[in-house]
Amino acid sequence: MISFPANKSVDLAVEWHYSDYPVCSRNIIRIFINGAAMKRMLAPLLICPACLPREQPLELSSVKERDDEIISADLSCRTCRKRYPVRDGIAVLTPDPEAGPAGGQWKYEEQETIDRYLWSHYSDLMKVPDAGDAYAVWASLLAPQSDLAYDAGCAVGRLTFEMSQRSTLAIGCDLSSAFIRTARRLARERRISFSLQLEGNLRETFTFELPGSWRPDRVEFMVADAQALPFAAGTFQQITSLNLVDRVRYPLAHLFDISRAARSRNAFFLFSDPFSWSTANAPEELWLGGLSSGLYSGRGIDNVRALLEGKQKIISPAWRINAQGRVNWRLRSHCNHFEMIRSEYLTAVR
Ligand SMILES: C[S@@+](CC[C@H](N)C(=O)[O-])C[C@H]1O[C@@H](n2cnc3c(N)ncnc32)[C@H](O)[C@@H]1O
Predict the structure, then answer these.
(1) Contact 209, 191 (CB under 8 A)
(2) Does residue 170 line the site of ligand 1, with CB under 6 A?
(3) What is the number of the ligand 1 atom nearest to the C-alpha of 226?
């Protein structure tokens, strides 16, 4: 029987106990502790992100699993020969799994950013002062029911968990492996502690516990690119993309890929973005708004709406927009300093 030291995290406890067990037992200990890992039933649904738009299946090898969860494995494409690892239960399914963070993406790997996002995603549920309600508002816009759901750029997972309340399985994908590790840890342990600057060198600690009714067995988190999702066309009934289109390298490719991954009928899409276009993420010629001339001149929200409505016949079948509005989203720096970001949303069905 394994016991954990009270003041150490589970990950530390693994290291702590390694020396006490013979080599042949170590994997068993690791498997036991890791728990929630990649669901095996997902493997046949995965396709090679590097071969898109061709849909090439991935083959599993070197599998270590427990019950129906894959702890580690290799997923490989017979066509392009690329290999995608599953390590510590996390699948890395970007077109180039060896590549590190590029452009402005590095900041999403830092602990301070993770902690700011944990506060932003869960502060209302922790009932702490100054909490924002943005995720509760976005959750209230979701379709009441779906089977498979996909949260693009999920960060530390709030909306993925919200979607899992309304679907058989919700899959959160993000390019940041640090965010995905954090979201998966929350799913596995049901609680997480983090700290933020209070003032100067003083820190304030927060602890969040998943509400008892939430079902982490209905969520999956993986490292994947929202411009080349490793799922076949028409897989998802419900899709969200929050505060992402202005962060990706090819904003149009992201919208196109969302539409590809969504069912062609009986599908729901929640889109929201502040349109903070920046050349750190995408060159100006690829922005979908904020320009004075060109195909995507004018406001991002108008151009995204027109694209979804099929105006340029890029996105097909077209979506019907059924709501449009704004959500004020809040990130905390220290106890007296907050960033307020107005995110413009559309809900769409087809
Ligand atoms: C501004 S944050 C928004 C996060 C979350 N959707 C929310 O609203 O709280 C942008 C997120 O998109 C992720 N991201 C950026 N480029 C991405 C890509 N190509 N594919 C998937 N995720 C990406 C970042 O790692 C980060 O988590």
Answers:
(1) yes
(2) no
(3) 20
**CB neighbour list of residue 215: distance below 8 Å, 6 or more residues apart:** 164, 165
From atom 10 of ligand 1, which residue's Cα is the shortest distance away?
244
Global confidence as pTM: 0.90
User: CA dihedral in degrees (133, 155, 146, 326; nearest 10)?
Assistant: 40
Tell how far the Cα of 109 is from the centroid of ligand 1, in angstroms. 11
Question: What is the rounded CA–CA span in Å between residue 308 and residue 51?
Answer: 25
Contact present, 108 and 179 (Cβ < 8 Å): yes
At 262-284, the pLDDT tens digits run: 999 999 999 999 999 999 999 99
Multiple choice CATH, 100-349, 3.40.50.150, 3.40.50.1260, 1.10.8.60, 3.40.50.740: 3.40.50.150
Q: What is the DSSP string of 3-32?
A: ---TTS-HHHHHHHHHTTS-GGGHHHHHHH
CB distance 238 to ligand 1 below 6 Å: no
Query: Rounded CA gap, 250 and 293, in Å?
Result: 19
For range 92-114, the mean pLDDT: 90
For residues 240 and 159, give the distance between their C-alpha atoms in angstroms, rounded to a whole number: 8
**120 CA distance to ligand 1 middle (Å):** 14
Ligand 1 binding pocket includes 175 (Cβ within 6 Å): yes
3-state SS assignment for residue 83: strand
